[in-house]
Amino acid sequence: MSDEKSAREPIGEDARIDALDERLKAAREREEERNRPRGQAADANYRMGNKVLAELLGGLLGGAVLGLVIDYFAGTSPWGLLVMLFLGIGVAFRNIIRISNRRQD
Q1: Short-list 9, 101, 19, 87, CA closest to 52
Q2: What does R_g of the chain's alpha carbons equal in angstroms?
Q3: Could you give the angle at the alpha carbon of 75 between the alpha carbons of 71 and 78, nearest 5°?
Q4: Among 4, 50, 51, 63, which is disulfide-ready with 84 (CB 3.0 to 4.6 Å)?
Q5: Whole-angstrom Cα distance, residue 27 to residue 74?
Q6: With contact defined as beta carbons under 8 Å apart, do 57 and 97 qualify?
Q7: 3-class state of residue 20 by DSSP
Q8: pLDDT at 104 (0 to 100)
């Protein structure tokens, strides 16, 4: 019998293979972290965008409706509509600036 190992026996551990395994594991973990969906941040941005859009549309539509009502009853067409529309735009922008200055939790 010979002292040489047969081809089917497992090869002893090699430091280079261990180091390669560790580097591969670290690379896989970094890749998984990088590809992980950012659910909470995306949801918060989506909600913030919806708030801004609602404020802008609400200010415009609210000002327009109030202006039309004032014009109808006071007979001041189109001045009530124009004044209230500009006031609605101003209020909408003020609310949007308040939303943007709010601290993120």
Answers
A1: 101
A2: 33
A3: 50
A4: 63
A5: 73
A6: no
A7: helix
A8: 63
Instruction: Name the pTM for this structure.
Output: 0.58
In 3D space, the residue among 58, 60, 56 whose CA is nearest the CA of residue 84 turns out to be: 60
Please give the Cα distance from 52 to 1 (Å, whole number). 84
| Domain residue ranges in the chain | 39-105
Q: Which two tokens stand for residue 59?
A: 């200010």
Is residue 85 within 8 A of residue 69, CB to CB? The reply is no
Whether the predicted pLDDT of 1 surpasses 60: no
Compute how many other C-beta atoms are within 10 angstroms of the C-beta atom of residue 69: 13
For 29-70, the pLDDT digits (tens) are: 998 888 876 766 777 888 899 999 999 999 999 999 999 999
User: d(Cα 81, Cα 76) in Å, to the nearest integer?
Assistant: 9
Q: State residue 76 phi and psi, 5-degree precision.
A: -105, 30
